[in-house]
Design a protein that fits this description.
Blueprint (H helix, E strand, L loop, with lengths): L21 E6 L2 E7 L5 E4 L1 H4 L5 E7 L2 E12 L13 E5 L11 E2 L9 E6 L4 E2 L3 E2 L10 E6 L2 E2 H8 L12 E5 L9 H6 L21 E4 L2 E10 L21 E6 H15 L13 E3 L5 E9 L11 E9 L12 E6 L5 E9 L8 E11 L9 E9 L7
Parallel strand pairs: 7-15, 17-23
Antiparallel strand pairs: 1-2, 1-4, 2-3, 3-6, 4-5, 5-6, 8-11, 8-14, 9-10, 12-13, 13-16, 14-15, 15-16, 18-21, 19-20, 19-22, 22-23
Protein name: Trypsin-like serine protease
Organism: Bisbaumannia pacifica
Keywords: Calcium, Disulfide bond, Repeat, Signal
Length: 398
Amino acid sequence: MVMVTRDPDRYRIWPGEGYDGVVRVVADDSYGTGTLLYGGRAVLTSAHVVEDAERVTVHFSTVDGAAALSGASLALHPEYDAVDANNDMALVWLSQPAPLSAARSALYRQDDERGQTTTLVGYGLTGEGDSGYDDSPRTSHSKHLAENRFDVTGDELKQALGGGINWWPRAESQLILDFDDGSQAHDALGLLAGYDDIGLGAREGMIAPGDSGGPAFIGDKVAGVATYAASLTRNGLSPDVNDAFDSSFGEVAGFQRVSYYQRWIDQSLREADDQAPSRADQVVTRIIEGDEGTQLAYFLVEFRGQRERPDQWVSVDYATRDGSATAGEDYLAVADTLVLYPGESQAVIPVEVIGDNRVEPDETFFLDVFNPVGGEFADGLVTLTAVRTIVDDDIFLA
């Protein structure tokens, strides 16, 4: 991650400071970045990071220390196109649940990303905006963050530049930002495409090698997946501060737009989870706690109505709530939107139950489902609630 500051460590994330769910993804002898998703079993990254790899390992760095988990399986977007950097999405299904101290992330599902400030997190190279990244040998990989702002979509940039870029972003599927230094001379999108805006000025950062697959957060939700950087010219104009392709001031970066790909992500996660119930009579309401790691408690949401259109999405918001069980101690809280896509009438919401060796009574927590879109709850209800019991399996002998 290239930093504008002269002191790159200013933006280094130390264990315990957050973003513990942003991971280093090692594919054979190369590496990129990824994001641990809700459920603690899968990491979102770029297809070009892991394609053709014989071995993928996911490295965590948290307040509890370092951990490495192997990837049990991969899901690459079936229409991944390396030439035009389209559909550059992949999921790594972990061989075991992620460490408890690694933060889980939800997807950013709205399409209002343009103009919003985003936090970029990754394990890539660092450097300075006026000279680009430093690719000298390093003995360790550090996690860094930077801020920037989404400016346009990839197809909007293509339309504005015409032949100024030699790839074809799929409509609405990519988000583009430029790396400004506060001057109009290095405002790439302003100088070349008429999007005059220096964004965050000298506060901005940029992706660099090693950040591929890393997240761009809006708030605490992952809105983009880092795919590429580019140095653009048009009609003899070049905003790049040093005319080199090195993540310096005046360059642009492209991200896969998570809101566009949420259907592929959601359905790929559902397909990979062979433990999820598919009928109401398969739902387990009493979950054995276990001694370590996490077990999954499932909530099954079913839609029994009629869609107004065959292509209509149906959704509900949901959030966990403490009963006698406490979030963070007995289970991991979740709050997100569940979408049932065309052809789907049901899906599960997984919640991680935390294992321990403490002798304690059985405890309960709730899941509230609300704000239905494309359907409604029966009997005029505003919220549906289900309960799960965490069954203690620790034996005490006096």
